[in-house]
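Quick one:
INPUT:
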């Protein structure tokens, strides 16, 4: 029977407690949200929603085609120019998603015969980019510049190292300066995904590469998403102009994908301009993360110290993590739940988002509910 194997896999997932389901949320939810990636609390900000509406009224509901045909508006180029300037890079190229941006950067910068050195904790989009690239991938130990250096030493020719700047599971930061040094010793490029750094790290939220002094370097490329701190949707690749020009001509997820909808571009541009005016939002997100961690550990929970805005709380098992998250939701608190295969180390977790707009009272309530529902 066609697709009969799907039933067997579904049974295995059920037995392992790994079934995933969609949960449509209403426009106005009563839940305290510590599950989304809206780090700066901008997704519903009036300025950002008006930016989306204004762009839709001006440019239409969709981009109408690929970026190289009809999908590039003046709004897209304006966003690219301001995003590159804000993050300290020479140029930027906007994609329909952060996932598409990562696929583009890795595949287009790792031709046949090249080596890709990939951190074991990288996001699925970087992993898929490695799988699709024509180069050879070597996965190395998590956040270990020495392992990157050793891998690069075994290869002669074109090479890149690929890493998240802030890892999405535990919220720990990559040692970017040491990674850049390892790459430069071997003439390799460094490609980093700053999805969880933009808007949170660096001066006024300019990102982890900016904070590490790597923004604008001719051997560093960064990808970002517009769907987290900027409260919109889409992604971008930032780097030297010649790299961006190369992506325009070689990146399949740019050439063949429909361009980002104008509403999303308008929302992202409005959020970027608001962040310029209110740079304290980045520091507030980090402060909330620190307070969450301190209160959670003070309550006897095992929480990983955050380097940005992600706070991870360990659960005894995958089943316990699922039940814990469900109990939190029933009590009025939305939290993320990470379990295999989303976590490479096999440790299940609750994943909390430290939003800049959370109040002290909300933080205290969240910690109380997590403690009361712990398995």
């Amino acid at each position: 029977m066609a697709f009969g194997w799907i039933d067997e896999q579904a049974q295995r997932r059920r037995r392992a407690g790994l079934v995933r389901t969609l949960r449509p949320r209403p426009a106005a939810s009563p839940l305290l949200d510590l599950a989304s990636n809206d780090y700066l609390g901008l997704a519903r900000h009036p300025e950002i929603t008006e930016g989306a509406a204004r762009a839709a009224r001006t440019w239409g509901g969709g981009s109408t085609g690929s970026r190289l045909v009809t999908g590039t508006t003046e709004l897209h180029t304006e966003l690219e120019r301001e995003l590159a300037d804000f993050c300290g890079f020479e140029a930027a190229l906007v994609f329909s998603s952060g996932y598409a941006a990562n696929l583009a950067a890795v595949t287009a910068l790792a031709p046949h015969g090249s080596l890709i050195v990939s951190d074991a904790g990288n996001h699925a989009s970087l992993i898929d980019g490695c799988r699709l690239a024509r180069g050879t991938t070597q996965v190395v130990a998590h956040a270990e510049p020495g392992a990157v250096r050793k891998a690069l030493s075994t290869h002669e020719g074109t090479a890149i190292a690929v890493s998240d700047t802030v890892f999405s599971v535990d919220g720990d930061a990559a040692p970017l300066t040491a990674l850049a040094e390892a790459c430069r010793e071997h003439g390799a490029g460094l490609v980093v995904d700053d999805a969880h750094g933009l808007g949170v790290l660096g001066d006024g939220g300019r990102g982890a590469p900016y904070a590490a002094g790597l923004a604008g370097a001719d051997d560093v490329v960064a990808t970002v998403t517009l769907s987290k701190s900027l409260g919109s949707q889409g992604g971008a690749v930032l780097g030297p102009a010649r790299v961006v020009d190369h992506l325009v001509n070689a990146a399949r997820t740019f050439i063949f994908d429909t361009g980002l909808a104008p509403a999303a571009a308008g929302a992202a541009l409005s959020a970027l301009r608001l962040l310029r005016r209110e740079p304290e939002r980045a520091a507030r997100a980090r402060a909330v993360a620190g307070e969450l961690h301190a209160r959670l550990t003070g309550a006897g929970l095992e929480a990983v110290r955050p380097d940005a805005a992600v706070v991870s709380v360990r659960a005894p098992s995958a089943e316990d993590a699922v039940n814990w998250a469900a109990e939190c939701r029933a009590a009025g608190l939305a939290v993320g739940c990470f379990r295999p295969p989303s976590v490479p180390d096999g440790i299940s977790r609750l994943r909390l988002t430290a939003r800049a707009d959370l109040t002290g009272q909300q933080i205290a309530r969240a910690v109380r509910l997590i403690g009361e529902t712990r398995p």
